[in-house]
Amino acid sequence: MTNLASGVRLDACGKTFDDGTQALEPIDLEIAAGETVVLLGPSGCGKTTTLRIIAGLEQPDAGGRVWFGAEDVTALPIERRNVGMVFQSYALFPNMSVAGNIGYGLKVRRVEAAARSREVLRLLDMMHLSGMGERRVDQLSGGQRQRVALARALAVRPRVLLLDEPLTALDAKLRESLRIDIDRLLRTLGMTAVYVTHDQAEAMALGDRIAVMSHGRIAQIGTPQDIYYRPATEFVADFIGTMNRLPGQCHDGVLRVAGGSLPLPADGHGADHAMFRPQDGQIVAPGQGDLAGRIAAVFFLGNATRIIVELDDVQSVVVETGERRAFREGDRVGVRVDPGGIMTLRR
Amino acid sequence: MHRGNTRLLLLALPAVVVFAAFWLLPMARLVQVGASGPRGIAAYAAVVTDSNYFASLVATVAVSFAVTVATLVVSAIAGLFLQRNAFPGRGVLVAMLTFPLAFPGVVVGFMVIMLAGRQGLIGNVTDALFGYPVVFAYSMAGLFVGYLYFSIPRVILTVMAAVGKLDPALEEAARSLGATPWQVVRDVVIPGLRPALIASGAICFATSMGAFGTAFTLATNINVLPITIYTEFTNYANFSLAAALSLVLGLITWAALAFARSLAGSTVAAAA
Predict the structure, then answer these.
(1) In angstroms, rounded to a whole number, what is the distance separating the alpha carbons of residues A304 and A306?
(2) Which residues pair with A72 in a beta bridge?
(3) β-strand pairing of A36-40 with A209-214
(4) Fewer Cβ neighbours under 10 Å: the N or C end of chain A?
(5) Whole-number Å distance between alpha carbons of A175 and B188
(6) Is there a contact between A79 and B178 if contact means CB atoms under 8 Å apart?
(7) Assembly ipTM
């Protein structure tokens, strides 16, 4: 398959709807050719609006420009942008067979029937749907339907693949396996892809980079590791995974917090808080470790045990451990925090 | 088990009595009367063999079919527009469009005469412009306009409801694949509206086949089956032929409805 993927650039693309609500503040976003960027955020954060601006389904406010490679496509309607779209609702045409759906984009491009059916067979095979070409759409499972939708989007060799919560309608097991398939496809085909989701696990697994969005703005954009270990704002820190955040006073690079003190990283001296992930904490004997407290609750999760430790009446921290020990509510314990896992917000 | 059946029978009894008294017995009587004339059972064939009645049947089917097609085209476009676009006065416009539903056929006929009759608006305007009035109220064309007038509201409402249920992502998907607006309408919108169009088209056809008031108001000699039945019955006291024609009219309309239902049934999956 020839690679026609092009990079995408948004220049100051904002969106104000007719009723005056501003869904998106003017944002800049650059996506390299072949890169997968995940737009992650809660509902109403502007991620779907951003995707629709790239697709050409929404026009950015005056002044905003959309570039595919070196071409300004701002004025082009979606049907002339050559993008592939995958929707949460699958959006398969119910009046066409599986093969009819996959071949639709080639049909409107007037590709002759023989070449079209060859291409459809190739895509069916690639999506593990061999032999299902003549089926009706309503005879397929949810996972199969989304594979057909992917094949249909890929058939037109899009410059950019746009996926709008493609796994949200599926159950957990199926979501995992289809996510792996999508990941493999994006890598092997070298597709430029923009993937919208509210599921952080999906974002972590799929994104070369993640743009965390909130209230119509990009709160932070970076690799999954960046986002997870170096969150730029309180919102990002809280939205991705669980984060312990303790306020305190800094003295000589050490933060005094409820129940003890934590060494701050070199770039965080002077901060008024410290943060760490639950897996960077460890339950130790009382009197040892960095923090002292009392076990308030224990949840066995299977692959780990999640322990909530009260430091005082207000502050508590969450610790996750894979240890096969029995933890009892009410026990006094110490918490040791891996110094490498302690972070502060950038200012 | 047995007691349960008895109770069910008792519960169903009122419905059975009503069905027998107001459907079964009159129908049986109609069939009997139809075959009781000088022609005997051949009265039923008269609608085909007698050129007068056959012409009447063809005219009725033709005008009903034309009304159905015109109504579907007008209402599908208007319904799509009304459901998809928000503009000031939209609610008032929709309410006004449904107003004709409240009129009996006589009033609709009266309105057609005021529009296209001898003293009608179209007549006055064309008289002023070309020197001769265009009058078509008292013909099949007038009947067509009248039927169109009371058919459009029903179909528009059905189409609007169906458009509201179309998944907008389907059209967006088609566009993303390169489909032009016309291809989107042909490949996505019309197939999506198909069940609603078939169902409301069938109702529209059935209503036009049996409508009497409008035709009777426009002219007593318009050659459609309901008028023919009326004339045979009241003017010539030809009960048997009127009964036979009634049954034929009923059968054709019923068959059209059943055919439409079978078509719509095969597309039910489209809504999934």
Answers:
(1) 7
(2) A67
(3) parallel
(4) C
(5) 28
(6) yes
(7) 0.84
